[in-house]
Fold these 3 entries.
Entry 1:
Amino acid sequence: MRVLLDGETDLFGLAQLVAQNAGGMVSIEDPESHVLAYSASGEAADPLRIRSILGREGPRDYLRMLRDWGVFDRLHRTDDVIDVPAHPELTIKRRLAISIRQPSATPGVAPRLLGTIWLQQGDAPFETGAPDVLRGASAIAARIISRILDAPSTEALMVQRLFGVRGEGVDIPSVAGALNIPANGPAAVLGFAAGDGLSDAVAGLIRLHASAFRRDAVTMAHGARIYVLLPGFRSERAVTAWVRQVVERFDTDKSIALHAAIAIPVADLAAVAGARREVDRVLDSPADSFPRGRVTTLAESRTAVLLGEILDLLRTRPDLRDPRLDALFDYDRGHSANLRDSVEVYLREHGEVRSAARALRVHPNTLRYRIRRVEQLTGMSLADPADRLLLEVQLTLRSGETG
């Protein structure tokens, strides 16, 4: 038996290869028994095959018999090859059949049924290895059909390019014309995310809410997020109020904690991709860094985003960790002290001893002693603005370490 396939092909090419290697005549059908592809037919093709190919689907009377014989139930339950005996009284020849299924990546979820491969016997018996050929063809057909089903439409490709997730550069007039949206003028770009990612159902609901808010809203799901473009929109207040309503509704009705970032105003459609990247920078930052709840704008979150990214860069450079803090941490561990907490509060209170002491619930003189001890251990002067800035950055950088 020859090798079935060693490269890419389409369903018609696959049907012909199966016929050549397994013997007989092949048809590939979708889950509703519509014929997707078939191999060449000879004089041995029975009336059922001829009717199926000419009508592009299995005849209803035959499909009903297959259900009565339990063939469809078996195809849904198993990945194995099913032998359907000949019925000379019905002028139906013997067939082998196998389902085309796409395994689910989610444990406990049944495979997705993509179709069926049918092999009709001709004048000669099937090849000895016909079942193995069908098993291999089933796996290849699943990949081909999955690619077809998952391939985005022309409009979807335009939207992906508009948001900058599929290559660089987009013909703005063409996109605006195809989507029937204005090419110029301010717009808003929004991003929604959730801690566990967004399911298809949640993304679909967000699309519905966006279209109800603006009929010309353009949405795109990508990865674990969904993005919304509101073309020709300039009111930050109205957009923010609507986004907060959506977040609150999901929280109340679905117990889903959404986070949202808003870029507004976006100059025009040419700036949408850049705005989407800025939105991602906000959504990539820790949720507790959002200035006001779970909805924020780029302007509100700029400080938190930039500080977070600076700290991320510093974490990739171990040589930029200040070793002088080791002495402070060692002292706290060895003396069951809390100098680190004291100096963090002191820095947060901008060096105001009395307000920091109140926050720590200690006497101001106690705090002054602790600050002097920190200076002795680290060799830093907390009267020096540069030392204060460096110490605060280093303490934040090492926030996960215990004293």
Note: DSSP finds 16 helices and ten strands in the chain.
Entry 2:
Amino acid sequence: MWTKICGIRDAETARMVAALGASALGLNFYTPSPRSISVETAREIEAAVADKDVSLVGLFVNHSLEEIETICGAISLDLLQLHGDESPEYLAELGLRFPELPLIRAFRVRESDLASVAAYMNECNRCGKRPDFLLIDAYSPTAFGGTGKVAPWTVIQEHYQIDDWPPLILAGGLTPENVAEAISAVQPFGVDTASGVEEQPGVKNRARVEAFINQAKK
């Protein structure tokens, strides 16, 4: 089970999470977020886990293509995650600029089905560029993610087009206590958490990180 711990804010935490067996570390470049980091801190994190088998995921929310290019020029990211209102056309252009970087497109879901995801994927097909992964998170009117709200597992289970859409990464309110149940219900490719393993926003708890990873990989 692919496991991502998002909102890593310092090199020490990065080393700890990598050593516990996480598949990926999420680096948040969205300034309004309490988990956001500077490029300088991201470079420190990159250096801290250079010898670890862990991927670095850059999280962006409505950044310009030029802003992403600047950050990618300063740090070697392994994946790009778009968590805002980025259009399929934006996705296609980003894919042209970074053909070597897999793209994760996040959706905040609250409806009774995944019609908005289906419509987006249809537009991606028209534009000639599909995301490499889809991340389904819980909807919040006040934040783009990291709220601790649980995503609608039943809706995802019933409506995710697993044979046609990219691999699913499940997010939204996942904790050590519920991640095994979530995986059993939804059968995703991977899981992603931030607040579910924290003592306070941006501060990871070692015991909770370890429990989350162990429960997910069971």
Note: The CA atoms of residues 4 and 39 lie 20 Å apart.
Entry 3:
Amino acid sequence: MAVVGTGGIAAVHAQNLAGLGDRVRLVAAADIDQERLDAFCDRWEVPGRHRYLETLLADARPDLVHLCTPPGLHRQQALTALGAGAHVLCEKPPALSLAEIDEIAAAQKSGGASFATVFQHRFGSGAERLRTAMASGALGRPLVAVCHTLWYRPDDYFAVPWRGKWEVEGGGPTMGHGIHQFDLLLSVLGEWQEISAVAARLARPTATEDVSCAVATFAGGAVATVVNSLLSPRETSYLRFDFEYATVEVEHLYGYGDDDWRVHPAPGHEDAVTAAWQAGPSGRPSGHGAQFAAVLDALEAGSPPPVTLPQSRGTLEFVAATYASAFERRPVRRGEIGDGSPFYRRMHGGGAPWTSAPPAARVQETTL
């Protein structure tokens, strides 16, 4: 393994790789900040230190490269690593646009190495238990869902140069924060069909939104509300699934365990729902370690590592459709955003409605 970018999230990667024991070796790291690179390599006993990805690939020849860099760098770094024959595991969001992720897909197809995105909430035993119980039929059809990422980020959070800018972060909480929660939602409910959304910049000194809300319909008929906020002092990540025969909820902040899940059977279905839920796996919290283990399992079996490019693209298309619906004030269907759409190459399309307005002009900035 090799890590590119040695900031805070890289330490999370290194710690979870260390937890996998002798299944992996962290052989190299790269960062343009020499001091930060040295501190990371000293802490995690990484032998290879590089200022540039190209030299890392040539010297270390890693099997898998972890991209822990700002989102604006993901596309080119992924293309470089795939071109060198290295698999890529990329922090969210995988790219700044659908055009970029399609370019990565073309590189994967022509090369032989695989690209995957870190969406670690898919891999906790609670989510797996839900999908297993759902597949058994004991829960019935999914009907209604709620997916709320209600977080708080003060103004000084955006002092980091790449935050809050379309060109380098790709979007606000829809793109960079709530994406983990609604990726889990999509892994349960399957393909979405249509989105109607609003987005606003109400308070933070950003070019991007600081809140969005979408209503999404799914191929199976379910309807879900998805809220992404950086303005919520009581922070929570909350998902709720109302099936025909049960409600299943999880509430956490940045990662869940089994105790964060609740199941409420409908009257007359207590035994079947309880039996199906108890039959599922347990004991594995969501987190990078759970996904890293699944990635290693896949690579050792010769399979594409999760979360695959098609799955990642579906989640990124959900983001693009949320922005397109909010900014164009209309419903957007799955598959509608193609090469001819301004939202294919930039998440904000032709520009956010508040582009020329100061943050104080809050009423005018909300798309209705």
Note: DSSP finds 14 helices and 14 strands in the chain.
